[in-house]
Design brief:
Distance between the termini: 55 Å
Structural class: alpha/beta
Mean pLDDT: 92
Radius of gyration: 22 Å
Shape: globular
Number of strands: 16
Helix content: 25-40%
Strand content: 15-25%
Length: 543
């Protein structure tokens, strides 16, 4: 059932915001420490929500035509970032998001396989702490529902890394209706409830709804708890396979017969009017691997693929609405910080028209289909940028980022052009909770926090940001410093862009500014050495 938010109730204003700093170095080892707050001070609840494989322009509040009333409302009540960045792929993003470190520092420089080096071990290492571990020791109840994907085996599951309760998918992408029907023979998808394996029911199961159901249940279970809560809700939507309820698909079927070219134009115009992007940034050309919509031979199938993709996003948005209504019912919305983002840009896997793993003649959408929507639609999802998930050009790393916190963010509907990065989320949570990032955990020294809190942006609209931020994934490399971005696709040369005048990365200035290329290259190489980045493909150490 698709439901949007009811009218928000009037809340009493918070008695005053702030919190005393809680020293975590020793207390991170305590299982249930007592909370410490000053009289009249109230620590916020924190909800962190992430979509999977969703493009920059898919949401209504980021220029899309998909019906996302709950996220749109969060944006209207809070703040949207136009220049927020993820880590280009699911596992690295999740590692950085949870730890406030670059993915290599946390042990997940690639995916969940162990490539033989600390930076590429495939699970969170002992020299990082998660947001859950930090906040639990500051007196928070820590809850998670959704996709984990930063450690396949015990003791690297959510309950091993600070979460009181967990339901979800330990592994990566899965069949939404029946996770036992995997993408290929030999692939196993693990689900868990708390620290036990979980097998979904044979009838009536849909992954997105199940994540929402358990998030709401967890909140309800602790409704009388005097502790603030941290909820991490990590959806798999709209990651392939294209699976959605028939009634949701029906809302969109036929609406994409206009094609990807027209869709990109319409989205860009709305984004310009919203103030998310600038008119001076030319639209990136249609990807050279695809073709004009008028030349597409199976427009009916491609319309249906995009309809299923849109339905997946709308169902996720409806679930977010259910979570927000539960928080309102508990009387806690005013002092709850909600943050939303995506783990990478739209996914081009499967080529221009996407893949069909089953090849059984069934249309996309149902349990026995297994398809992606392809590069052509991903090109539209990432409007106005170029490239996709995996790459570190803007199309791969630019994400919507919405923050809503009624007690603190007073000017709703604001768009900020401050640059933010996933490493900043941990710092923001610790700052909001009045906690301290630890120096040690379980007898191990902890890698110093890389992120910077976003609270000054929430409160005052600006902050002193990073000198530079960095990326590396599968040999795709980038560094951004101020207006300048140096970026390279794996095996390609460095490209230099002035993002103030050319955020769509169409005019390479490397030849005109060799000194800037040299300066940023040195910055990147220093960061890569510090974080343990290795040449791609990573060669396993000789034994």
């Amino acid at each position: 059932m698709n439901a949007s938010l009811c009218t928000r109730r009037e809340f009493l204003k918070a008695a005053g915001f702030g919190a005393v700093a809680v020293s975590l170095g020793e207390r991170l080892r305590a299982s249930e420490p007592a909370a410490s707050t000053a009289p009249g001070r109230k620590r916020p609840n924190i909800v962190l929500i992430m979509a999977d494989d969703m493009g920059y322009s898919d949401l209504g509040c980021y220029g899309g035509e998909i019906h996302t009333p709950n996220l749109d409302r969060l944006a209207s009540e809070g703040i949207r970032f136009s220049q927020f960045y993820n880590g280009a792929r699911c596992c690295p993003t999740r590692a950085s998001l949870l730890t406030g470190l670059y993915a290599h520092q946390a042990g997940v420089g690639f995916m969940v396989g162990n490539l033989g080096y600390r930076a590429y071990q495939g699970y969170l290492n002992e020299r990082c702490v998660t947001i859950a571990e930090a906040l639990k020791s500051a007196g928070y109840r820590t809850l998670m529902s959704g996709k984990w994907h930063v450690g396949e085996d015990r003791p690297h599951w959510p309950r091993d890394r600070g979460f009181d309760r967990y339901f979800g998918l330990i592994s990566g992408a899965a069949n939404y209706f029946d996770p036992t029907k995997t993408k290929a023979d030999g692939v196993v998808r693990k689900m868990a409830l708390d620290d036990q394996p979980y097998t979904p029911p044979q009838e009536g199961f849909y992954m997105t709804d199940a994540f929402t159901d358990h998030a709401v249940t967890f909140l309800d279970e602790y409704r009388r708890d005097d502790k603030p809560f941290f909820l991490y809700l990590a959806y798999t939507a709209p990651h392939w396979p294209l699976h959605a309820w028939p009634e949701d698909i029906a809302k969109y079927q036929g609406k994409y017969r206009k094609g990807w070219d027209k869709l990109r134009e319409e989205r860009r115009e709305r984004m310009i009017k919203m103030g998310l992007i600038r008119q001076r940034w030319a639209m990136s050309p249609r990807d050279e691997e695809t073709w004009p919509w008028d030349e597409e031979k199976d427009q009916k199938l491609m319309d249906l693929k995009m309809a299923v993709y849109a339905a997946q996003i709308e169902r996720m948005d409806a679930g977010i609405g259910r979570v927000l209504r539960k928080i309102e019912e508990l009387g806690k919305r005013d002092n709850t910080l909600v943050m939303f983002l995506a783990d990478n840009g739209g996914c081009a896997e499967g080529g221009p028209t996407g893949f069909d793993n089953r090849k059984n003649g069934l249309p996309p959408g149902g349990v026995d289909s297994y398809m992606s929507y392809g590069l052509s639609w991903a090109n539209a999802s990432n409007t106005p940028f170029r490239r996709y998930k995996h790459w570190v050009h803007e199309g791969g790393i630019a994400t919507p980022f919405i923050a809503s916190w009624p007690a603190v963010i007073k000017k709703g509907g604001t768009i900020t052009h401050e640059v933010g990065h996933i490493i900043d989320v941990m710092a923001t949570c610790v700052d909001a909770a009045g906690a301290e990032y630890p120096k040690t955990h379980n007898g191990q020294s902890v890698t110093p926090l890389e992120g910077k809190s976003l609270l000054p942006v929430f409160r005052e609209g600006k902050r002193k940001g990073h000198d530079a931020v960095f990326w590396e994934h599968e040999g795709n490399r980038a560094v951004r410093q101020g207006r300048w971005k140096l970026v390279s696709a794996h095996g390609g040369p460095w490209e230099l862009y002035d993002l103030e005048v050319d955020r769509t990365e169409l005019h390479d200035l490397a030849g005109k500014h060799p000194d800037k290329v040299q300066e940023l290259t040195a910055l990147y190489e220093g960061w890569a050495t510090r974080c343990g980045v290795r040449p791609w493909p990573v060669q396993r150490p000789k034994t």
